[in-house]
């Protein structure tokens, strides 16, 4: 009886929705700021040839035509195919122009040996591009939707990005420092956790297993056998998304996670002795989401902050922590937030010690 009663109501709601549709994509009639963009008059676009030629970045003697973005992309690809016979364009559906028509007409004009379709495999597309480029071709791989680029991440990160860093005599892969935590921390919906010690690892891992969220639990390999301490035999959990204040201090807050905390501790001991300062040490433990409250409370008390990690500094965890401090505790800062991390380069294991921050570099940063 309940099911029979619900069916007419559902039909009535559907009919009502059809008669009174909700136009989610339209702006409110009295909107002043959030109104649809009018690209036909927007000042970021060059609507006349004189406006275009006034910009020194573009050829001043060339004729111009009005094009949208896909037409401009098509024009660039066409030029590349015309001027260099080594140029190849390939991907899913590119032979007939692709979903967005960016390669429209290119296969007809330049042939299916240079503009061709591939199987539905983003990893294969990018892998083929790397191999073709390695043999001297100008490989243009089409991944039509950014959503589908993730299957190709292995090829992009471990092959394409490291190709010029290969060992000269043998061509062997550079390998070396891999700290991908910032990549995962950029994805809403994931938690990223990194313990500093055996006791921390057990409690945080059990908390991660009990959590209903997907968690990236990152374990520093160097600590697998090097770090030994007393660990409770019984089950216990440590709070996720809660930073841990390892050492109190009044003059500077040092923020780090994982293995660098050991070097930070040694550097703090040396700095406090040599510079007569009191330094606070904070372990983030969970890299995303950050425990902003602990970070900000610490920095507001000390007025200075240094963020340390092994990973490259560009777009890293340190940048996020520094931005958080700048946005929420700027008026309490006595000095700019300092970041100390690895260089933006790949290197072999032999040279890793020159890249990863050590006690000396930490002491110099603390003195500054």
User: Shape, please?
Assistant: globular
Helix content: 25-40%
Distance between the termini: 77 Å
Question: What structural class is derived from the secondary structure elements?
Answer: alpha/beta
**How many helical elements?**
14
Give the SSE string: HHHEHEHEHHEHEHEEHEEHEHEHH
Question: Reading side by side through the largest sheet, how are the strands ordered?
Answer: 6-8-7-10-11
Largest β sheet strand count, sense and barrel closure: 5 strands, mixed
Average pLDDT across residues? Answer: 89
Q: Please tell me how large the radius of gyration is.
A: 28 Å
Strand content: 5-15%
Given as residue ranges, the uncertain stretches (5+ residues, pLDDT < 50) are none
Task: Provide an overview of this structure.
This protein is an alpha/beta fold and 368 residues long. Helix content is 38%, strand content 13%. It has 14 helices and 11 strands. It has a 5-stranded mixed beta sheet, sandwiched between helices. Strands 2-1-3 form a 3-stranded parallel beta sheet, with helices on both faces. The protein has a 3-stranded mixed beta sheet with strand order 5-4-9. α5 runs parallel beside α6. It starts with a helix and ends with a helix.
């Amino acid at each position: 009886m309940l099911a029979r009663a619900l069916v007419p109501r559902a039909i009535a709601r559907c009919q009502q929705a059809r008669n009174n549709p909700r136009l989610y994509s339209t702006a409110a009639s009295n909107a002043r700021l959030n109104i649809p963009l009018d690209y036909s008059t927007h000042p970021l676009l060059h609507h006349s040839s004189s406006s275009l030629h006034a910009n020194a970045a573009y050829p001043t003697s060339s004729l111009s035509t009005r094009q949208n973005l896909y037409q401009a992309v098509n024009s660039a690809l066409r030029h590349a195919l015309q001027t260099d016979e080594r140029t190849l364009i390939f991907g899913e559906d590119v032979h007939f122009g692709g979903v967005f028509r960016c390669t429209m007409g290119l296969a007809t004009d330049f042939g299916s040996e240079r503009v061709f379709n591939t199987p539905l495999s983003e990893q294969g597309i990018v892998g083929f591009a790397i191999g073709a480029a390695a043999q001297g071709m100008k490989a243009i791989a089409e991944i039509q939707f950014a959503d589908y680029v993730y299957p190709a991440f292995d090829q992009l990160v471990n092959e394409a990005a490291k190709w010029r860093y290969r060992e000269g005599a043998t061509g062997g892969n550079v390998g070396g420092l891999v700290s991908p935590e910032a990549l995962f921390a950029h994805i809403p919906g994931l938690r990223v956790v990194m313990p500093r010690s055996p006791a921390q690892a057990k409690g945080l891992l059990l908390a991660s297993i009990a959590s209903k969220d997907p968690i990236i639990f990152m374990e520093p390999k160097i600590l697998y056998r090097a770090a030994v301490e007393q660990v409770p035999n019984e089950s216990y959990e440590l709070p996720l998304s809660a930073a841990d204040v390892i050492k109190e201090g009044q003059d500077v807050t040092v923020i780090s996670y994982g293995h660098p905390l050991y070097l930070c501790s040694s550097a703090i001991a040396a700095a406090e002795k040599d510079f007569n300062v009191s330094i606070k040490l904070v372990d983030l433990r969970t890299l995303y989401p950050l425990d902003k409250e602990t970070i900000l409370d610490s920095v507001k008390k000390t007025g200075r902050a240094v963020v340390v990690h092994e990973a490259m500094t560009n777009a890293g965890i340190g940048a996020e922590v520094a931005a958080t401090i700048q946005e929420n505790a700027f008026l309490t800062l006595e000095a700019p937030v300092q970041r100390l991390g690895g260089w933006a380069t790949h290197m072999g294991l032999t040279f890793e010690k020159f890249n990863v921050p050590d006690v000396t570099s930490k002491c110099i940063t603390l003195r500054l």
